[in-house]
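new request in #modeling-help
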Amino acid sequence: MVTIYVDNMSYEVREGQNLLGACLSLGFDIPHFCWHPALHSVGSCRLCAVKIFRDENDTRGRIFMSCMTPATDGVRISINDAEVRHFRASVIEWLMLNHPHDCPVCDEGGECHLQDMTVMTGHAYRRTHKKKRTYPNQNLGPFINHEMNRCIQCYRCVRFYRDYAGGRDLDAFGVHSRMYFGRFKEGTLENEFSGNLVEICPTGVFTDKTLKKHYTRKWDLQTAPSICVHCGLGCNIIAGERYSTLRRILNRYNGQVNGYFLCDRGRFGYEFVNRDRRIREPLARTGQGESALQPITPDEALNRLADLIRSSSCMIGIGSPRASLEANFALRALVGEENFSTGMAQAEQDRVSLIADVLRDSPVRSASLLALESADAALVLGEDVTNTAPMMALYLRQSVRQKPMAIADRLKIPRWLDAAVRGAVQEEKGPLFIATPAATGLDDVAAETLRAAPDDIARLGLAVAHELDNHAPRVADLSAEQHALAATIAKALREAERPVVVSGTSSMSPAIIQAAANVARALHAHGLDVRLSFVVPECNSMGAVLMSGFSIEEAVERAETGPIDAVILLENDLCTRAPRELLSKLRASCKNLVVIDHCLTESAADADLVLPAGTFAESQGTLVNNEGRAQRYYAVFPPHEPIRESRHWLREAMIAAGRMKSEQWESFDDLVTQLARTLPVFEAVSNIAPPAGFRIVGRKVARQPHRYSGRTAMLANVAVEEPPPPLDRDSALSFSMEGFQGISPPALTPRYWAPGWNSVQALNKFQEEIAGPLRGGDPGRRLIEPSDKASRNYFDQIPNAFLPHDGEWLILPAYHIFGSEELSVLSPAIAERAPIAYLALNAEDAKSLGVSEEVLAGVEFAGIWVSLPVQIIVGLPQGIALVPKGLERLKGIALPVRTRIRKAETGEQR
Amino acid sequence: MERPLTGRMRPGEGPVDLTAYENAGGYGALKKALHQMAPQEVIQLVKDANLRGRGGAGFPAGIKWSSVPSGNDSPRPKYVVADADEMEPGTFKDRFLMEGDPHQLIEGVILTSYAIQAEIAYVFIRWEYTRARRLLEQAIAEAYQRNYVGSHILGTAYSLELKLHVSAGRYITGEASSMLNSLEGRRAVPRPRDPLPTLSGLWGKPTVTHNVETLCNVPHIVNNGAEWFKSLGRTQDAGTKIYGVSGKVNTPGCWELPMGVTVREILEGHAGGMRDGLTLRGFLPGGASTDFLTDQHLDLPMDFESIQKAGSRLGTGGIVVLDDQTCPVGMVYNLIAFFARESCGWCTPCREGLPWLAEMLAAIEKGEGRPQYLEILADQCRLLGPGNTFCPLASGAVEPLQSALKYFREDFERHIREKRCPWR
C-alpha cells in the first residue's frame, strides 16, 4: 500500500495502479473518456487531468493525466484545483464544438457518459459560431446502429474491437479533425463481440439496433439482474423491459465471470421472449386422436394436469438443461426421483457427467472466465470456443498477452500503460495451442494449431499428458510430427505459471475430455497452479447433471416398455437434444404428453396439453454454469397471465391434485430450501442471493428507476385508476419504482446508476476496486471444488487413431455462435446472421465425390438422403465432414454419425 | 571559417558523388571507427563533443546513445532511424544536406549504428523529397557495393542493413515516436514518452532516432575529435549549424555557420537584409513552431540557451521573417491552419483546439472577429501548453500565436475594431 494525498487529505491505496483508477476506487469523481478499466490507459482524451504538486510547499503544481501517472507513495494531487477544473471543462468544450446537441433524439440520451462528463466538468455555454462537422453513417448490420456525427474520437471502439476482441473490420480512418471510426466499406460488423461497442462507446455513435426497434429510455426500463441462457458460461446480464416487452440486454459485471463484456449472442438473442413463437395461453387437444391444439383456460389446464396426476400410476418427468434448478426440482418432486429425466440425450449426459466427475474427483480447480484471462499458457482440445462458449474465446484471446507482459515488466512499463505495453510487446504472444477438426476464430493468436479428428485430438492430449508425467498412459504409434507437437505443447505448459486446459462436449468425444483431465492432472503433479475449463452445451447442463436423472433415451424406452400414463416435458424440445425419432417413439407409446414451455417447439406442437411458461425474463431461478457456479436470475417483469413460471404450474397442479399442501413452497426460498435439503450438492444455492425477506432500510430493491415515467398513464386505455404494482413474493426486488435505489447487494443489482453517473460507467461506484470484485463480493457460489484426496488416477483408455473409411464419412457438428443455439436463433437479429445449412468437406474429399461449392452433395441421415450445398474447408481432415448444428433444417439428426455422401441426385430432398 | 557539413559541396556542380566524397576523405571516419575504435569510444567521443540534436529539441546525442542497452543479453535487433521527414515550415536544411552530400548522411548513419551496435538502420524520408530520395537510393547502393554497409563491413565483424523508407507524408512523423509507429505500418500517432525509444522503440526494440543534420556531424567528430568540434561553436554550444532564412529578405537561403552566430549576422550578413522599403517586425527563430522574437533580439547568439532565455526556441534554425507589410494575423492564421491540418487526431486539445483557433483567426482576418476572441485565443494558447497535450505538436503550434498576441496585439485589436484586415 502507498499513501497518496488528494486535495490535502491522505489515502492508502494499492501500489501499482494509476492515479485515475486509484481515485475512482476511493470514490472520487474524475471525468474520463478514453480510459476503460479493461482497455487501460492511452492518454488520448486528456479529460482525466489532475494537478500534481512537487511537495507540500509547491502551490503551483503541474497538470498531468491521472490515467497516465502511477499512484506513487507520497504523491500530492488535486482534483479540485481551479486551473485543472478549467482545463477539464475546456476538454469538454473542445469536444462539444462538434458534438450535435441531439440528445433528445439520441438513443444514448439519459445514459450517456458524455452527458455525465459534460455536467461533471461544468461546461455549459457554446462560444464558437461555426457549423458542426458531419459524416455519413454506415449500415453495420442487424446489431449495431452507427451515428458518426456524435463521435468524440476517444478511440475506445477500435481499441476494444481490434486490440481486445481481435476484430479486423472496424478501424480509425482519416486524420486531424476529420477522424472516422467505422468499416472500410459499409457492411455487417463481423466480430462476435461487436455488441460491446454499445457500452464501450461513451456516447451515441454505436447503439443497440435491436433496442432501437422498440426504443425505451433507460429511466423507463424496468430492469433486473439476470443470467444469460444462451450458452453454458452463465454471463451476468441486466435485462430491461417496458410494456411487457423485453427491450435489451446489458452487461452485468461479475469480476469472476464475464467482467465488462458480453458476446453478441447473449446481447442480441433476447428477442425470442417477444416473438410469435411464444405460447401465450394453455393449449390442449379437445377431442381424441388427430385433433388440433385449442386454447383453454388456465383453470381447465390445471384441472387436466391435476386429473392426470391423480389418475396416473406412473408418470415420467423430463426436465431440461435450459430450465432452472428450481423448475427441474419441482418436476422431480412431482414425478418422483426415480421417474425424473435430465432431458439430455444419453451421450451428452454421459459427457457432462464425466466433466462433473472430473471436476469433483480431481485436484484441479475449474477455471472461472477471470482465470482464463489471466492464464499464461492454454491448451484447447476439441472446442471451437468462439462458437460454443464465445466469451471464453474473448478471454483466451487476452491470455496470450500474459506471458509477453514480462517484456513490459523488464522495461518497467506499468501494465496499465496500454499504448506503451503494446509498443514494447508488439506481436509477441504467449503459448495457446488449439486442436480442433476445423479452423477456429482464435487460430490467429495461437502458437500452434492442429486439424484432426476427435480421436486424434484425444490422442494428442493424452500424449501431452504422458510427456509431462511418465505415469500418464503412453500413446503408441504416434507419428514423429504428432510426437514433436505433443512435446512442444508439454514444454510450454510446463514452463507456465498458470496454465489452463480447455475442453468440452462439443466434439462429442469423452476421450477428449479424459485427455484434458490427464493433461491438467499431470501439470498439477508438477505443482503448477493449473485450471481446467470445460465447455458444456447449455445454460444449466451442469445443474441438470448434478441433479441427476436418466436420459431422454431411457425415458422413451420406459415409456415404450413400462406402464407409463403420462410424460411431462419441461422447457425442452426433444428434437433439439435427441434424434427426432425419439419424439415419434415417445408420442406413439405415451397416452398423455404434457409440455410446459415458453416457445412452441416441435415437441410442444405434438403434445396433448401445453402450459405456457415464463422465459428467463419472467422467471426466477438458479443456473449452474460450466465452472460449477450457481447463479440466481430474477424476473424482469411478471409473466402476463395466463403465462406462469414453470414451477408455479407444477406446484399448483400438485396442490390441485392433492399431492402438496397449499402452504408448501409458498415462496421461492421455500423451494430452494427443500432443494438444498434434498440434494446436498445444492446446499450453497440457498446462500447465493439475499432471501425474499431481505430489506435495505425497510425497503425492497426497486426494479424501476426513480425517474420511471408514465406509470399512471400506461394502462389508461384499459382503466383510469392506477393499479397497485404487482407483488413479488419470491424476491427482495419490487416491480415498482418504490424501493431502494442505491448500491444494493451485487446479486440484486438491477442497474448501474449513481448520482452524476447515468451511463453504464456508473459501475465504478459498485466495485470495491476498479476492475476488482463488486462491493459485497462477486455473486454466485461454486458448487464443485477440487478434492484433496484426488482419488482418480489417470484415464488410461487410448482411442485408436482415426482412419477414414472407404465410402463413409464421420459427420460432426459445426457450431455457429449465431444459429446453433435453440432460443437465440428465434430472435430476428440473430437469425439474420445464421448460416444456411451446408456440408463442409475438405477439397480432396469433395473432388473425389465429384461435388463442389457449385454442386450439391447428398448425405444419408437415418436412411434419408438430404442434399446440401458444399463448403470447402481447408485443413479439415480427410474422412471428416461437418454440418451446422441447430439449424431448423438439420434438427433431430443424430450426430456424430458415420454415413455415406454422394453427389446429389435430382429429386433428393433439398 | 570551417564548414565541415557543406565544405565538399560546390554550388552549381550537383551533389558530391562517391568518388568526390572519398577523395575528400569520405568514409575515412567509418574506417577509423571500425578499425581503431570500440563502439563505447565512439559514444564517449560524441558525448565529449557535446553534439546536440539538430531537429529542434537539442537533446545531447551522446547521452541518447549511452541509454541504449548494450551487452550480449541486450534486446536485438537494435535500430537507428534517420529522420529525413523534414516538414517544419521555413526549414529546408536537411534537404540541402541530402541533395548536396548524400554520402555524408549515410556515413553518419553507419557510424551511429556502429556506436550503438545496431543491426538495422532506416532513413525515413519525406515523400516530396524526390530528388533527395533518388540520390540517397543511389548512394546507399554504392555504399553497399563498397561494403561500407552490409555484412561484415570492411572486413570487420560488424554488419548493418540500411534501408530507405519513403514516408506517406505527415508533419507528425517528425515526432520520433510517431515516425516509429508509421515505420511499423501503424497510424502515425505519438507513443507515450516513457519508455524512451532507446529502450523500446521500433518494433519494441532499442532505437536511436536522429535528425539528418545531427547524423551528418558524426563523421566529422570521429575524424577531428571532440575538442575540434567544440571549438567550432562561438558559445557553449558546439559545432556548426545550418541556419536558414525565409521571408522578404534580399537573399533567402541557408548557410552553415558557427553555432552561436548572432541573428543580425545571419539576417543582415547572409540573407542580405530586408528588401527595399520593408522593415523587420519579427521573426520565428527556428521554424514555424517557435515563438516570435523581434528587432530587440537581433544581437542574440543563435544557440539553444540564448534563444530559450529570450522566450523562444532555436528549433531547426530555420528563421522565418515577418516584415511590416505583411499581416501578422494572416501569417499566424496560415501557420495555425497548417498545424490544425497536420494534427494526427489522437488527442483532444490538438485535434479540436487547433481548428478552433484557425477558425477564430480566419474570422479575425476576414473582419468578422469578435472582441472576446482575443481572450479565448490567449486562454487556448495556455490550455494547449506543454504537458496538456499528448505530444509537443500543439504546444509548438501555438508558440507563434501566443507570442504574436504579445508583440502584435494591436494588430489583432485593429482587425476586430475595424472589421477588416488593414493590409488588404
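bot summary: The two ends of chain A are 68 Å apart (CA to CA).
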